[in-house]
Amino acid sequence: MASKMKSRWADDEGDAALDAQRKREKEEKKRAKAEKQKLTDEAARQAAAAAEEKEQLQQELSSRPSKRRKMSPELEVEGEGQAAPSKDTGPAKLLRFPGGQWKKCRSVEDYEKLNDIEEGAYGWVSRARDTATGKVVALKRLKMENAQDGVPVTGLREIQTLLDCEHPNIVALQEVVVGEDTSKIENIFLVLDFLEHDLKTLLEDMNEPFLNSEVKTLLLQLTAGVSYLHKNWILHRDLKTSNLLLNNRGVLKIADFGMARYFGDPAPKMTQLVVTLWYRAPELLLGAEKYGTAVDMWSIGCIFGELLTKEPLLQGKNEVDELSKIFELCGIPTESSWPGFKRLPNARSLRLPKNPASQGSVIRAKFPFLTTAGSSLLVSLLELNPTNRPNAKEVLEHSFFKEDPKPKSTEMFPTFPSKAGQEKRRRKVTPNAPVRGKIPELKATDFSGIFAGRDDEEKGGGFSLKLI
Length: 468
Ligand code: ADP
Known about the structure:
alpha+beta; three-stranded antiparallel beta sheet
């Protein structure tokens, strides 16, 4: 019976085994729980250690400036001349480095206008005095062909290239100022160093041309400025005597960067509608879209000739007349003297004489008073094939400048009465730089434009250009 008193569960053998199983499982669970707790404790310990390490690192970092301060106190000297804060006097201050600044343009009202220098079709330049400093400057209003489209790219390029240039033979841009009415975009002015003359006005007023020694000085300065531009990947693209300024100390400076632009290697495609007609290289007249520094070298050749005679060298009435005058003076291009020239857009339409051998350069004959070195330099600058023209560095090293008469020192340069100093400069009417935005028109008349105003045939210098 006693066995009957016992729980029937205990009596059951199967149940006892089950009990033992449950007990085992319970113990296992306990062990697992203890294990888990151990792991959690370990993780917490590690996290605490990491936090402690981080804190230490931060403490270390924040203590570094004080160490450096001790080693190099000059680093702590503040711009305003304050004493460097020591570890004990307060928190460390940030170091300050000089950086670019944006600030409001000054106003044109800060200048008092003295007189107009030039008031052209789209240009306006006047002589003015900075009322604060008394310094005399030239104020040039930026041309705004389409003011509604914002500042034109020509104006932006003029500012950008002039700001990037620092050379004794390039006019310095002191600042850009705005008119009082800032709502009008037309009122943007360049403040430039004032120079008493431009070479064009001066040549027109001179009774006698410059002496050879003076021509050399002017040409060397012009070439030095151009060499600087080309070294800095800038093409001027409008070199002419009216853009060359001269002060009363014989210093020449290149001005008017309205046509200037950066170029690359290889040259990118660029507009051919650049450079005032009389100074425009044959590759541009023939429609080359890829051209380079040689276009400026051609203009230097034209200026060289003009300085010698006082007269512009190649006074074409239009593009075809200009080409005709170029071929008359420099000879006819041939496949051997200028390989590939026939493939230039406007050259395809040219009919040139059958026997070009008799149509050579007459430059030496036109300048009989030039020495061999002088005429070889002029001939090379006026090479039809742009790759045959010397670069600016080669011109600077040319033997022409080493032979007698030596270049006149600028201090010995004659002084001339300055028109710009008193009144508006009045010049003979001469062509202006081409106007941007007319390119499609020119393209459409690329060829017919070249022969516009002529009959079927253009005669001159014993050859003819024919429309075919
Ligand atoms: P535009 O782009 O209208 O042709 P330029 O820069 O060529 O303007 O200037 C026109 C004329 O103004 C020059 O031929 C020169 O006579 C005069 N000029 C320009 N800049 C100066 C200057 N810095 N100092 C004196 N005269 C200047």
